[in-house]
Amino acid sequence: MADTKTRPAPKAAVVLTKRAEARIAHLMSQAPDDAIGVKLSTPRRGCSGLAYSVDYVTEEAKFDEKIETPGGTFYIDGASVLYLVGSTMDWRDDDFTAGFVFENPNAKGACGCGESFMV
């Protein structure tokens, strides 16, 4: 007998706040013609080892996680997912700085300037 139960969709590795979604929509409204979305990755950089990087993406990579938002497609680099599972991505804009900020339960430490983290 076939299993007819439906399984819930898996949760995304990263939860986007409404402000982050709005910023992605803004970025996509100004994106180059060949951009298909915005991608989060964690390149090796900084004094703690890994950094958050958000860039336009022009093609899907096989193992990237894909999240559809109201303003455009958001990708998470497949090699970075393990470092980001359970994270929340927000956009903050105040008198002194503007940028994406992350609450990452996998980060075991960060450098003093906040530019990089370690897992």
Question: Which key phrases capture this entry?
Answer:
globular; 4-stranded mixed sheet; mainly beta; 119 residues; 34% strand; 9 strands
Brief rundown of the structure:
The protein has 119 residues and is mostly beta strands. The chain contains two helices and nine strands, in the order βαββββαββββ. Helix content is 13%, strand content 34%.
Helix-residue proportion: 10-25%
The span between the termini is 45 Å
The pLDDT mean sits at 84
Q: From the helix content, strand content and strand pairing, which structural class follows?
A: mainly beta
Low-pLDDT stretches: none
Report the radius of gyration as a whole number of Å: 16 Å
Strand content: 25-35%
N-to-C order of helices and strands = EHEEEEHEEEE
Write out the strand line-up for the largest beta sheet, numbering strands in chain order: 3-2-5-4
The tally of strands reads 9
Shape: globular
What's the story with the biggest beta sheet? 4 strands, mixed
Q: Given the structure, what is the number of helices?
A: 2
